[in-house]
Amino acid sequence: MVPRCTTNATNCVAASSTPSSLTLNGPKGYAHARIEADIQHRHSGDGSASSPNSASTFLRIVEDRPYFPLLQLDPTKNESVVDVARTVLSAYNKNSRSNNSTDAGDVNSCEGKVTVITGGLTNALFKVDLNSSTDEATNNNTSVLVRVFGSEGMIDRDIDTANFARLCNKSTTGGHNVTNQFTVIHSQLDLLGRFANGRIETWIPNMRQAHHVNDFGATAANCTELSREVARQLARLHYGFDIPEYLVSKKGGGVEMTPTLWRVIEDWTGELKNALEDETFVNDAALVKLFEEVVVSKNNASGTSPAPTTEAIVSELTNELKWLQKVVETKHPDATVVFAHNDVNAANILLDASTTNTDNNDSNSPYNEQTVCLIDFEYGAINYAMFDVANFYCEHCGGNDNAAPDYTLFPEHERQIDFLREYLKAKRGILRAKGEDEEQTAATDAEMIARLLSQVQLFRMASNLYWGVWGVLQAAGDVIDGTFNKENAKLRLLGNVGMNNWDNLRYGMNRLGGYWECKERLLTIGEV
């Protein structure tokens, strides 16, 4: 239950917003709510779908949480951030079946303080503190996370939000429609509601972002124990989460789970072609050289290629994708497919700020499901389990701060083995608790880990290709701090914007460089 201010102001959700009795769930539930909102707006004659009255009063309950499909938040105005947070949280207190308190509470008269949360590469993030102005002595305050969606068109926000709602459905609370036998994410993490261009989530106090070197680096104190906890949490996500019905397809009386990895990269590459249709990058010699080195010259022995065109870039990326997919499906046709996070990096791992990492044995490890929290599941989808593992290894190399990953920081062989050993141990415990037997195999743990390591090497390439295309496409669409700016995107593409801020293009190119580095190494040793 979310803590609430207890002032007695009139609830900000008007009577006309009373949600319909129709049960709305999944991505289709959000789509249905928007259709309803559009129909009501066209018949209301209020003149504007975004008018304050209609926006804050049209409400539907989807996935047992409030959804305001007409309510837009302006991330450049603190008052807009606070108003939307109040509206959504008030509706959550009043309407959500997860709220078992008889005191619905009200946040409408609470003073709002907005803090910008840095480090998000996809969304604009804000912490909103709603403090009671009438009774400071009670310290009865509410803090929430406001997420304003970025990466327009790259993420299906209906699927993303429905996934997050299902992940937050915990059997221990007894409040939501229970779907999970296990608490697969942090017990305090929850979805409170959604508005037109974002959503409200719980704020977990006393947590900090992890750092790829200070916490996961080879010289960091107790980095092994922290990595083991991440392994356990990945296993819980992979094998403890009841995959939503809308993510799977029915085939021959059974359920088929198709990895989304290849389709997503293919889709992004197609979008990239459209976004860069008129750009040849000839206005920036440094970027031309970068594209020649990273994208074109790998398959051009003469080294005399002309300035790369959009066609050349897209063709090269498409060919690499097809080649890698064929290698994976040939070498590992039975690779395990699960619901994967797809973006496990240090910035998406929260650590208890009061926990010290100086203990060096299993029994005294400070890391557990309460002191370590995986967040930001927006790229979550059906995918190969070892993609998550390989991606986590890749993220040890950093780059989220300076767009330049240091590939020498990739975990050494023994650390990879230790992680996989803990992952398999956790996987078996989860399957036993669910009454499911792991597939019978004569393979020893060593043989199984060897197979997984082979998969990891291929998905290391896939991770670099995935985020490489993402970075270049983000540069073309340039969503920074929640703002979509086509002119800035063009300037950034042409190299006219400095490195004072995050640079999607250079990050993307560096990840693509990591892809070819991995490929050349595996070709040299005969692994592909």
Briefly say what this structure is:
InterPro entries: Kinase-like_dom_sf. The protein is α+β, with helices and mostly antiparallel strands.
Q: What attributes does this structure have?
A:
3-stranded antiparallel sheet; 7-stranded mixed sheet; globular; Aminoglycoside 3'-phosphotransferase, Chain: A, domain 2; ethanolamine kinase activity; 16 strands; Kinase-like_dom_sf; 528 residues; alpha+beta; EC 2.7.1.82; 2 domains; ethanolamine kinase; 13% strand
Give a structural overview.
This protein has two domains: about 15-205, no CATH class; about 210-525, Aminoglycoside 3'-phosphotransferase, Chain: A, domain 2 (Alpha-Beta Complex). A hairpin with a 2-residue loop joins β15 (about 480) and β16. With about 525 residues, the chain is α+β, with helices and mostly antiparallel strands. The chain contains 13 helices and 16 strands. The strands form five sheets. A seven-stranded mixed beta sheet has the order 1-2-6-7-5-4-3, with helices on both faces. A three-stranded antiparallel beta sheet has the order 8-12-13, covered by helices on one side. The protein has a two-stranded antiparallel ribbon with strand order 9-10. This is ethanolamine kinase. GO terms for molecular function: ethanolamine kinase activity.
